[in-house]
Amino acid sequence: MHTKRYILSLALSASSLMCFAQANISPAKKQSKTIAITGATIHVGNGTVIENGTILFGNGKIISVMANGQVPQDDVMRIVATGKHIYPGFIAATTNLGLTEIEAVKATLDFQEIGDFNSHIRSIVAYNTDSKVPATLRSNGVLMAQPTPQGGTVSGSSSVVQLDAWNWEDAAIKTDDAMHVTWPVTPRFRGGFGGFGRPQQSPEALAERTQAAIAQLTSFFAEAKAYSEISKPEVINTRFEAMKKVFAGNEKLFIAADSQKDIVAAVNFAKKFGITPVITGADEAYLVIDFLKDNNITLVVKQPHALPNNNDDDVNMPYKNAAVLANAGLNVVLSIDGYWQQRNLPFMAGTVTAWGLDKEKALSTITLNAAKAMGVDKTTGSIETGKDATFFISAGDALDMRTNKVEQAFIQGRDINLDNLHKQLDKKFSDKYSAEKK
Amino acid sequence: MKKILLAIGLVISTTFLFAQQTTFPVNGSFDTRPGMFAFTNATIVVNANQTLTNATLLIKGQSIQGVGAGLAVPKGYVVIDLKGKFIYPSLIDAFTSYGLTEGPAQQRGFGGQRQSIFVSTKKGAYGWNESIRPETYVKNIFSTDSKKADELRKVGFGSVNVISRDGIARGVSAAVTLNEGADNSVILKDQTAANYSFNKGTSSNDYPTSLMGSIALLRQTYYDAQWYGKQKDEYNISLDEFGKQQTIPQIFEVDGWQNILRADKIGKEFGKKYIIKSTGDEYQRINEVKATGASLIIPLTFPKAYDVEDPAEARNVSLSQMKGWELAPTNPASLEKAGIKFALTAFGLENSRDFWTNLRTAIENGLTEKQALQSVTEIPASLLGISDKVGSLEKGKVANFLISSDNLFKNGNIIFENWVQGKRFVVNKMDVSDVRGTYNLNVDGVGALTLKITGTGGGSTAAIERVGTDSVKTTATFTRNGDWISINFNLKKNPKGDIRLSGYITSANPVTIKGESALADGSTGKFTATYKEAAKETPKKDEPKATLALGPVIYPFSAFGSTELPKQETVLIKNGTVWTNEKDGILQNADVLLENGKIKAVGKNLSASGAKVIDATGKHITAGIIDEHSHIAGAGGINEGAQSVSAEVRVADIINSEDVNIYRQLAGGVTTSHILHGSANPIGGQSQLIKLRWGKSPEELKFVGADGFIKFALGENVKQSNFGTGARFPVTRMGVEQTFVDEFTRAKEYEKALSVKGNSVRKDLELDAIVEILNNKRFITCHSYVQSEINMLIHVADSLGFKINTFTHILEGYKVADKMKAHGIAGSTFSDWWAYKNEVAEAIPYNGKIMHNVGITTAFNSDDAEMARHLNQEAGKSVLYGNVPEEDALKFVTLNPARMLHIDDKVGSLKAGKDADVVIWTANPLSIYARAEKTFVDGIAYWDIDKMHR
User: Fold this and answer.
1) Which of A112, B389, B398, B816 makes a 20 to 30 Å CA pair with A309?
2) What is the 3-state secondary structure (H, E, C) of B464-508?
3) Where are the domains of chain B?
4) According to the model, what pLDDT value does residue B101 have?
5) How confident is the model at residue B550 (pLDDT cuts 50, 70, 90)?
6) Lowest mean pLDDT among A38-47, B316-325, B754-763
7) pLDDT band, very low/low/confident/very high, at B458 (cuts 50, 70, 90)
8) Per-residue confidence (pLDDT) for residue B795, from 0 to 100
9) Phi/psi of residue B94, nearest 5 degrees
10) What is the Cα–Cα distance from B27 to B135, expressed in whole angstroms?
């Protein structure tokens, strides 16, 4: 009785919100009561599943996770989720979410600074909690993200945020979690339209330019590292200051590299500075699996919904890539380009499942593995005692668009509003047509 | 005596038009010589079919006086004894830009940055588009080029066709000899051919920006030239010249076999038979090339070997590159075998010296010497209409011939002289005796050695060998100046140090060389080299023939191509979940029978004798996916964006059968794709519906019997909000409306004029397409986003009396669904795209659901080669966003697009009689877990996950 009433009131409050514009979708209030969700299939995020499980959480933290229909005896608010599925909030890695609103409108683009060595650039200060996009992600289960600067060779620092916040300060789960580097690559000439195109520069000249860029990157790191050893530098260099955390091991190093040669070069580069990097992109990682395992490298793999790089590649290679790598024992994070596209993140994990990876392991690629790569796994990434109560209830398999039905979601214990601009516009016009029908 | 000679001279000079009359003044005294030469005792290759031995060639001035065995040499002739030597007609290159200062035209890629130049800025009363430049006459701009001529003569060429390679209509080429002297004196034929290409060259006009635009412009120019002759309103040099040039041969330069087919198609439309210069990949589709009936001019450019030693780099060398490297040298043989008439050109070779290397490689790969000779002499002569002057050695023809040491095609043959217009050009000294051979060499203080002289020019390299005690083999430095010869070598021991020989040829037959020797210790003496025998050719030259084992041609010529296409079979798919898209709905444990490319039956417990049975237990069977909005399989750009209306361009002209995305789409269950023009302008080009018959030719991909469509577009792209210079009208949605109003108004007037004045009206391909729309013979699919512009076009259509068939993208369709429904307009949208432009700020994933619920025929399209690979799952998103029933959801990517493309009588559902375009899925097709196992088009399994070959 108690529980039912609760659900009913929830539904009512949600529907009453429908009439308001996006601006009125407010961040949820702090968790006030301890809640027990019972009867659900809990997808923990670490590869395991708890059938008929119970999650007890209070003050925003998971108090305990119980199996086999165990329920707490305490006087807590109960949510019966029998037959439903609970997942840890999905984490959108390396995204420009909150840093872009409309791709084609320059004024809304805040993810790419000019310059080649921008280690001092920080995404968190530009993260826009009032963007209309995050709400459209939450309703598919994406509850956290890593807004990431792009461009240049050293792009700057990302941060990890949760997607229900008043401002970037309370959005932040971890600021400056990782420094992002793009490994310089030699562009390959693929021919213009109709074969009339001609390369602008010779392959040799292009390769030389790449080598020069790598040399610059190497000296940037070498000088920054030396600088970090000076206790009181005569002249403050903000770029080098920003690198201190990286050398001290307090900020991760993400390097984007795709070809097998570049991946190996990028890893060896970082190792020279005593850093184990996370490799992002990683299109050809499957060709250097042993090397990556030997070096214990975490990979942030690009979206499976991509065309193969080469005409001759297995047409389904992008679908299989993450599965091949994860099955080989590598720590794999799945990512997807863009910001609004992040609502498809669960289906990327679904695709990887279809092409060979165990479903719970695929789930880990967008939850616990991501949290580990960003250094936030102590507080989030899985449904385990002591971690943030950031998870959602779906009526069905959330990795499949056929069955992803997010009914209720919690971020740090807060019962968030799942409404969004799209639902509101749907309602507005659906109501118009049904009224006209009558 | 003198008198008689004079009389003969007079008689002869009156019979030849090459007599030395000239308007050109001479600075100093005249030096007119008889110019009479007799070449005796030669093997004369008159043409590929006739060789005379021990024959004589007589020339006088610029002409051949006689060719024959036992021909008497009249007095006054300089006799040149060519015993043991060969005479060939000089070679002819039908495709050069020799003597043109501008050189080859700048090859501008399609789709480059636009300059906002709409009408030509060229001075003079020429046409509007600078890429149509038939007013170019090579005879007016040509000038002899000693350096280049020398280079070509050394290869063996005596005359060439000179083409100004700039523009789409390039004007008239001229045939010239490679003689030195005044430009006037070398012209063989002043108008050999009118020339064309698909490349706009240096034209500063924006239009065309695409291959299909080039094709459309050329097509329109043919019509304009026809019209020009019948009208008095316009003075236009370009059209005048274009019209005048239609009676001479027509040469079309293209890039690749697909462009041969494209050029040929235009030719057939206008009754032209082009001579087509292509790039040497004809072997990849020899049958289609043969079917054009075109004569070809083919280069001898063969790809260099790729560096595949580093596996990491080898990955980036594609199968088509590797196979191209392997098979390109077989191209000439392949053309010969197919019976295609073709000339060979040195055009495109990095170094003209490669000509013989590559020609010999082609011969090793099956080209006959006879064909090779014809392709560099008689055939180019006949293509250019200069057979009466050059190409064979006959009386009265121009004295263009080669003297060679041997059969021209034999390895090691030396071209001694190349005579052009009766003028001698020495390539290699002929009077130098041939000293090649093995010699007994005796050097004072050294003893008996063997000397071997080999190489070109009668000997250019030497080697020394000693057998027995202190046996040694070493190369020697060999230098020769006429009869003087010096040879340096080092035997390492006995004696140590350099040995230098310097001497002369004392006897020519057999050769004996005598002279002084100097050893490293300072002692001097004599040496004698006595001819022993002919030097044996090094055997490595024959090796390639022995190891030649070439792979087959594959279709397409790339990864996932096959030597033989999969075949149509009778297939019984048993016991699956069958999504019929018909009244039967979704049938459990049902069968589908495919026969003769059609669906024979759908139902339970079907049987068919001889059918290949596929057990589909646990699997799902659907109709093939139809992508209403695709841009795959196009060549040379999919946008003709220079003008706000480009209704004249046709995607049909540029279908590229080799695009790997065809195969990739099949792997995602797609069987039919609607290839649309881009959205760069309010009225774009005519689209082409294709079936994904991977491996077939471009023409065979086309969906037969489908209605024609045309792309319209609204909003940011046509306003060029996010690109372009902002100079092209329109730049607002207000201007977009008036673009349509104006175009349709003009089209109506045009149609009326046609009905009144008939053929005297200038045929306008752009307006023809609009008239087709007005007459319900062509249908609109319109790229659209926001409700205001959608509403606008509906109003324009109503007021001007045309119909909109489909709004594509239509992301705000949900806001005007009632209006679309009232007008019977279909909506083909994205499942969930938004936020990428300002006009999609209110795009919602519920759009499909709302349009569907209002009763609009609703589809999801891809607009993207990647998304097309999982359109089934995009359809699945309509279940997520809006709870569309699953059966209806699948129709968003099958039956509904078929309806809006007017092909639902043929495809889109599983029903007896429809095309056997069928997909077998591993799971519910709307699920993310579904993979396409087999994709049938016309009953042929072009995709089979078990056979994924490469």
Assistant:
1) A112
2) EEECCCCCEEEEEEEEEECCEEEEEEECCCCCCCEEEEEEEEEEE
3) 31-90+391-433, 91-390, 437-534, 625-907
4) 78
5) confident
6) B316-325
7) low
8) 98
9) -80, -5
10) 35
**Contact at CB, B255 and A355, closer than 8 angstroms:** no
Contacts of B950 in chain A (CB under 8 A): 312, 314
C-beta separation of A176 from A164 below 8 A: no
For the domain made up of A2-88+417-437, give the CATH fold.
Urease, subunit C; domain 1 (2.30.40)
Taking CB atoms and an 8 Å limit, are B835 and A193 in contact across chains? no
Q: How far is B281 from chain A (nearest CA, A)?
A: 13
Over residues B387-403, the mean pLDDT reads: 97
Domain ranges of chain A: 2-88+417-437, 90-378
State which CATH number among 3.20.20.140, 3.20.20.80, 2.20.25.90, 3.20.20.70 fits the domain covering B91-390: 3.20.20.140
Among candidates B661, B837, B850 on the partner chain, residue whose Cβ is nearest the Cβ of A102: B837
Test A350 with B929 for CB contact under 8 angstroms.
Answer: yes
Taking every pair of C-alpha atoms in chain A, what is the biggest distance, in angstroms? 78
Q: Between chains, do B836 and A402 touch, taking CB under 8 Å as contact?
A: no
Phi, psi for residue A253 in degrees, rounded to 5: -115, 115
Kindly state the tokens that stand for A16: 């009453």
Encode pLDDT of A299-352 as tens digits.
999 999 999 998 999 999 999 999 999 999 999 999 999 999 999 999 999 999
The 10s digit of each residue's pLDDT in A37-86 is 999 999 999 999 999 999 999 999 999 999 988 888 778 999 999 999 99
CB contact residues (below 8 A), chain B span 208-247, against chain A: 210-211
Beta strands in B278-422 (DSSP E): 295-299, 342-345, 401-404, 415-420
**Does the distance separating the beta carbons of B109 and A193 come in below 8 Å?**
yes
Q: For testing the chain A interface, which of B880, B886, B921 should be mutated: the one with the most A CBs within 10 Å?
A: B880
| CATH number of this structure's domain A90-378 | 3.20.20.140
- Extended strands (E) in A132-171: 142-147, 154-162
Reported ipTM? 0.94
Q: Which CATH class is domain B437-534?
A: mainly beta
AA identity, residue B557: F
Nearest residue, CB atoms, A353 vs list B721, B882, B929: B929
Q: What is the mean pLDDT of chain B?
A: 92
How would residue A367 be classed by pLDDT, with cut points 50, 70 and 90? very high
B311 preceded by a cis bond (ω within 30 of 0): no
Tell if the CB–CB gap between A133 and B931 is shorter than 8 Å.
no
Smallest Cα distance from A395 to chain B, Å: 11
Nearest CB to A315: which of B108, B663, B814? B663
Establish whether domains B91-390 and B625-907 are of one fold: yes
CB contacts of B320 in chain A (<8 Å) are 311
Has residue B711 got a pLDDT over 70? yes
Q: In what order do the strands lie in the sheet with A172-182?
A: A90-95, A142-147, A154-162, A172-182, A252-257, A278-281, A298-301, A331-334
Taking one residue from A and the other from B, the number of pairs with CB-CB distance under 8 angstroms is 166
Do the chains contact at B870 and A308, CB–CB below 8 Å?
Answer: no
CATH superfamily of B31-90+391-433: Urease, subunit C, domain 1 (2.30.40.10)
Predicted local distance difference test score (pLDDT) of residue B537: 56
Inter-chain touch B199–A103, beta carbons under 8 Å:
no
Torsion angle of the four alpha carbons B405, B407, B408, B413, in this order, in degrees rounded to the nearest 10: -40
pLDDT in tens, B847-860: 999 999 999 999 99
Instruction: Read off the tokens for B305.
Output: 């070997």
Mean pLDDT of B770-791: 98
- Residues of chain B in contact with residue A402, where contact means CB-CB under 8 angstroms, are 876, 879-880, 886, 924, 926-928
| Percent of chain B whose pLDDT exceeds 70 | 94
| pLDDT (0 to 100) of residue A20 | 42
Class of B625-907 per CATH? alpha beta
